[in-house]
Structure formats: structure tokens, C-alpha cells
Amino acid sequence: MCQDSLEVMLQRVVNHQNPDLHRLRPGGVSDAYVRARNVCSLFDSLRQKMSIRRELCPIPYGELEFELRVAKGYVFGICGADEVILKFKELA
């Protein structure tokens, strides 16, 4: 998978299916976790193209986060601050 200057590669294992561990860890389980800039724009650009596991939402440490479900059940967590949120915090 490629987006701009980011490329993500997954290991291929024949007949592998990633287990769903979300029931066991309410705080979330990601196979990969990426911090990005302009996370709102990134979410908007991916929401129609990919399977969204968890919608964009605020997280306790002041950023926004969403999760994608990709091939073989892998989950990518993506977090970051959006430029609008950063400006709001500066003004507060």
C-alpha cells in the first residue's frame, strides 16, 4: 500500500488469518501504529477506499485516531494531531 511518501509492506504467509483480539483489549489492538500529520484529511481520503475498523475519534493523550482493517484481518492504527486542533490549542 502506498500513499504519498509512505509505503507499507505486509509479510505474506499462506492461509494466515490474523486473530481478532479486540474483545480482549478494550484499549485497542493494532498490528501497526502510525502517527501522521493532518489526520482528519487522511481519514477523509481513506474512508471511501478502505475498510474502517474504528472511526476517527479523540484519544486521551490529545490526538485523534482511527483504525483500518486491511488484508488478512490486519489492523492499522493511525493517529495524529490535525492542524485545526493544534491551532485551537494554541489559542486556548
Written description of the protein model:
The structure is a single chain. With 92 residues, this protein is α+β, with helices and mostly antiparallel strands. It has a domain at 28-91: Signal recognition particle alu RNA binding heterodimer, srp9/1 (2-Layer Sandwich). The chain is 18% helix and 30% strand. The protein has helices at 39-46, 83-91; strands spanning 2-3, 6-7, 32-35, 51-58, 64-69, 75-80. The strands form two sheets. A four-stranded mixed beta sheet has the order 3-6-5-4, covered by helices on one side. A two-stranded antiparallel ribbon has the order 1-2. A hairpin with a 5-residue loop joins strand 4 (51-58) and strand 5. The longest helix has 9 residues, at 83-91. It is globular, with a radius of gyration of 14 Å. The N and C termini lie far apart (38 Å).
* The CATH architecture of the domain at 28-91: 2-Layer Sandwich
Main-sheet strand order equals 3-6-5-4
CATH topology of the domain at 28-91: Signal recognition particle alu RNA binding heterodimer, srp9/1
Radius of gyration: 14 Å
How far apart are the first and last residues' alpha carbons, in Å? 38 Å
Q: Helix-strand pattern, N to C?
A: EEEHEEEH
Q: How would you describe this structure in keywords?
A:
6 strands; alpha+beta; Signal recognition particle alu RNA binding heterodimer, srp9/1; 4-stranded mixed beta sheet; 92 residues; two-stranded antiparallel ribbon; globular
Could you give a short description of this structure?
The protein has 92 residues and is an alpha+beta fold. It has a domain at 28-91: 2-Layer Sandwich (Signal recognition particle alu RNA binding heterodimer, srp9/1).
